[in-house]
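@channel anyone free to eyeball this complex?
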Amino acid sequence: MNLKDMFKKTSGRSHYISLRNSRPEVPTGLLRKCNKCGAAIIAEDVKNGYYICPKCHGYFRVHAYRRIEMIADEGSFEEWDKEMDFVNPLDFRGYEEKIHHLKERTNLNEAVVTGKVLINGNPAVVGVCDGRFMMASMGWIVGEKIARAVERATQEKLPVIIFTCSGGARMQEGIVSLMQMAKTSAALKKHSDAGQLYVSVLTDPTTGGVTASFAMLGDIILAEPKALIGFAGPRVIEQTIGQKLPKGFQRSEFLLDHGFVDRIVEREELKDVLSQILEMHHSAGAAEVKAAFKKDEKTEDKSDAITGFENNGQAENMAEQIKDSLSAWDRVQISRKKDRPVGTDYIDALFTDFMEFHGDRYYKDDHAIVGGIAYFHGIPVTVIAQAKGKTTKENLDRNFSMPSPDGYRKALRLMKQAEKFGRPVICFVDTPGAFCGLEAEERGQGEAIARNLFELSGLKVPVLSVVIGEGGSGGALAMAVADEVWMLENAVYSVLSPEGFASILWKDSKRASEAAEVMKLTAGDLKRLGIIEQVISEPEDFDAENMEAVCEELEGRISSFLADYTAYSSEELTARRYDRFRKM
Amino acid sequence: MIGKVLIANRGEIAVRIIRACREMGIETVAVYSEADRDALHTQLADEAVCIGPAPSSESYLNMQNIISATVISGADAIHPGFGFLSENSRFAELCEQCNITFIGPKSQVIQSLGNKSEARNTMINAGVPVIPGSKDPIYNAEEGAKIADEIGYPVIVKAALGGGGKGMRVAQTPEEFVSSFNTAQKEAQMAFGDNTMYIEHFVQHPRHIEFQILADEHGNVIHLGERDCSIQRNHQKMIEESPSIALTPELREKMGDAAVKAAKAAHYTNAGTIEFLLEKNNNFYFMEMNTRIQVEHPVTEWVTGIDLIKEQIRIADGRPLSYKQEDVHITGHAIECRINAENPAKNFRPSPGTITDMYLPGGKGVRIDAAIYSGYTVPPYYDSMLAKLIVHAKNRNEAIRKMRSALGEVIIEGIDTNVDYQYEILNHPDFISGNIDIEFIENLG
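replying in thread with the prediction:
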């Protein structure tokens, strides 16, 4: 039955006489329209909800002081250089009036607010750009305030966090504006050389001279979702090249894919993520690491350091025994087994609070390598793993753990970061080999691997590499120029795959099993050859379900590795590492 | 002012409100989701405004769209019905800010009564009985036993962070207390990592008795007697009746006074309901106040002859109550059965779909509040209640017989309903004798 227009309507002559005589009226400012999805939204909900549209989850731009409220512990903000005298280096006409007008309208002194805050109790120097003030373009005062804040942070040994947002250079200040790029970058260089942490948080929109200076210089670069981030603005690019730009171009996600952003963080999580990063860094420092593991060592001395050693011996003996029952080719196949634990399994099992960081800062974020900071026994370490996937879909995403040059560059970037902050580096090696393809060659696969060997040999912090599956050639070595290299019992490590070996030497890849035997690629063989230091035994049918025993073993051994190696000075470390490879 | 009312709801209650407005000569605006284009309320109202897609979060709960629809359609008042935004103080506040008459209590009152501990304190201060319990957290059994003695057995030990029955134990006697307390505390420590406990008097086999309140803006508060809503499943009421056979006239007066006191203490205006738990020994305890019209309001309408929706509109318009307490007389007995699109044999799984054929009963003393018609498709997005069947007769026995007869006439084809299940309850000896408590359905198995 269709009811449309079937019912009689209420008579227009209302016979109810209302006592009240008021008419609805929506107060101005109560409801707003989202400029992203067009939905009507209650302004107060937006204010109380991190300035995020409750409908489309789009992010509104945030005023500087609101931003500080969002991340700072209540009442902890101490503003620096609030009042700065107006400058007009080019004597630009009308500039002063414009600034005066803006000051009145926005209640801001200039386009950036700087000062000191506590974030969940962690002190930091912050700078926050405010887009309401001439699109937060960088004039002398902006550059000066940032430079002063960074200098003071260097002096007071504090980390710096800058929320960027800018249209770029301030045209009214011409070449003086351009110089602010150099000035702020130089201040950050000094801060960095003093071993201090700088985190930049890119917000919508970050463009021009700010992108090309302090925005992109973070040790860690975070971004808000969907923020526009670029050097040239999209409109300028479109006009120049005469083409329409693809959807999502120059958005945070695009930058993440292209290796320039470590992590995209939702606004609600920002405070916690920042405080976690700060904690991971102020508890770093080589001295603390040493102290922590010295303690470990002592307690172990008392208890079962010696029996622990014997256990290791036993485990190796066991490995030797099992060895006889398995051929090298068997082990090659086991090392490639689909359900074998992968890099991310070890990260989950051995470390806590792993925070993944992305990108090589040149071209791409290679998913074949996963890296970041985590805690090992309460001490921050840098963990980098060549990561196979668990499903076909994951494997396609991770390119079956065959890293591209971008992956090695990401790994190197994280290693250099670890060096700066005195964090030990722990690598998990599991790759059939470096990715072999057109793009890999175009972007310098050889150069990327070589660079890692070169830089790793001199890295001033302890480096441990564990081959957990396939150790395929240069692709593996690029993450294994370490103080010690360990292998799981059924992992393999070789100059190239047995198939490749057979096809080069005997022109017959089918003779791979034969090749495996002569290549000496098993853990036992490599231990005898002095290529690796330790072998970790595996249970039968090793998979993510039964990896607990292996991880317990690894945990104990990593702990004593760190105790041993954090005791060395960086000179001793690099000298020992040099000798290790020198004699091979 | 009230010249045109927007009904911020759907289903039978929207239809019920539209009808009251039509009778009063007030124009109506329905709001509907994309799934409710063909719904009865959409068609029956003078105007209808689509407020969003099917999910209620995007339509019937979308405050800003409803406010916009009100302003655009020229309505000046909103009736929120029950469920959805009816007890949302933020929504009531928005209406106040926009000068829209919200047909219900003030936002501040909704908020205070919605806060459990605040409401409890208000009632304690007003002398309304609440379930006795420990004021401060308790950490050991010894301390707890003393407090349990003060409260009176049986008691229930609850974890401060509790939920889902974990960290909860009943002690019938002081002898049981220590072991109950320790077990509950251990469970709480395991489940929530916290061993903070509270103790409360355990109300055994209670009835759910609620009192209908009307309060105007001039300080007049009356009650319209009680409803016995003990027949419920998972806290969802199924059958409600008025009066309750558990109440003597003296007890009714006592509870009614308490209800009026409670409403006054909360500075309540408009129609509201005070829910009590009634123990076998006639002790009763305040549970909560519902700050809206109830599903089961027709049983009260029938035994008192008062149209609650019209009264709500008058109160919201600032008029004094049309009745004084002495004008309220309970006449006869009314029972309501909720008819839901659900399959009792399959754990009451909702059964949306198209009603292919339909016949509903009528006759003297039979009322149907429904939102369905032949050919109507019940959408899967909302509550499964299709209709309410209400009967009125001289006494309870006659009402039960009338309800049985009426249920026996209901034909709804094309979807599953709980009509037969209701019919069985109406034939259950315990129901007939009035020997019921809130565990009745649970005990049916």
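from a first look: Chain A has two domains: 62-282, 295-582.
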